[in-house]
Design goal:
single chain, 298 residues, mainly alpha, 2 domains, Reverse transcriptase zinc-binding domain-containing protein
Length: 298
């Protein structure tokens, strides 16, 4: 997300316009339609503001303006007529999200948290607070943001390569994408069914993997243990599926669905047992009955 719109410039050396037509302050100094006809991009106010008084703006257009562009220019000049400069004051910027006018990570994070799309932020707590190794969290994070290199993305980046986007190495059927590989593939659907059955849940297939992270499933209860184990199990699922995909592609070695499920069950139990929520619970006891252990305390 861009910082533009939150930062106000008090002119001097700061940008007057940019190729993207970005806005500085509440109103843009230059309308997007006029940016394309400016001779020099990334102008600063000092480049276009003359030294005479009253102020004269020299925008140096590279061609004659059309009637519609002249109208835009008139409106621009009208808005600039209200701009006041103080030569005695030093150049400065003000951060509108902070009462002090100074930028802080906290103020920007709070602004980002108020956006209307919850998918951008809700998985963050789910992912980074989980009790799995950092490499597992990192993988799940890039998967949730659609940045992992599945075949469909590799084909877009290298269109001249003879990849086959209509080939999933797990099911050997549909095209490999993030949503297919981790959610819609028949192999992974079977693994998800086992996980939800173990948690005592009847589930409906989600539209995307992002949706899976946003939905608050409570099959293992609302206790600290239940939440911890469910987080660990979901991220372990991602890790094992991605490992299996890479093993089949790069090492030509595949494992059965039952073996994959045993690995998900084992590593989920192992990593969860290392957390404070399961302190004092033997590993073999937790592995035998998730639901009973999660319901016993906390």
């Amino acid at each position: 997300m861009s910082l533009e719109g939150y930062c106000s410039s008090f002119p001097g050396i700061f940008p007057f316009c940019s190729p993207s037509g970005g806005q500085w302050g509440e109103n843009s100094f230059l309308r997007r339609s006029l940016v394309g006809v400016i001779s020099v991009k990334n102008l600063t106010v000092s480049n276009v503001l003359g030294n005479s008084f009253p102020l004269a703006w020299n925008l140096n257009f590279r061609r004659n303006l059309t009637d519609s562009e002249i109208d835009l220019l008139q409106r621009l000049m009208s808005s600039l007529s209200s701009v006041r400069f103080s030569p005695s004051l030093a150049n400065s910027r003000a951060w509108s999200l902070s009462s002090s006018g100074l930028f802080s990570v906290k103020s920007f994070f709070l602004a980002l948290s108020k956006v209307s799309n919850p998918i951008l932020f809700l998985p963050a707590k789910f992912l980074w607070s989980s009790k799995v190794p950092s490499k597992v969290k990192a993988l799940a994070w890039i998967v949730a943001h659609g940045k992992v290199n599945t075949n469909d993305k590799l084909q877009l980046r290298r269109p001249y390569k003879s990849l086959c986007p209509q080939w999933c190495i797990l099911c050997k059927g549909n095209g490999e994408s993030i949503d297919h590989l981790f959610l819609h593939c028949p192999v992974t659907i079977g693994l998800w069914n086992k996980l939800f059955k173990l948690a005592g849940l009847v589930w409906v297939l989600s539209r995307s993997f992002e949706d899976m992270l946003v939905i608050a499933f409570k099959g293992l209860g609302n206790s600290l243990r239940g939440k911890t184990l469910w987080q660990v199990a979901c991220l372990t699922f991602v890790w094992i599926v991605w490992q299996e995909r890479n093993n089949r592609i790069f090492e030509d070695k595949g494992r059965s669905e039952e073996t994959l499920w045993d690995l998900i069950l084992f590593y989920s139990t192992l990593w969860a047992s290392c957390s404070a929520a399961f302190r004092g619970v033997p590993l073999n006891v937790l592995q035998l009955n998730w639901s009973e252990v999660c319901a016993s305390r906390v």
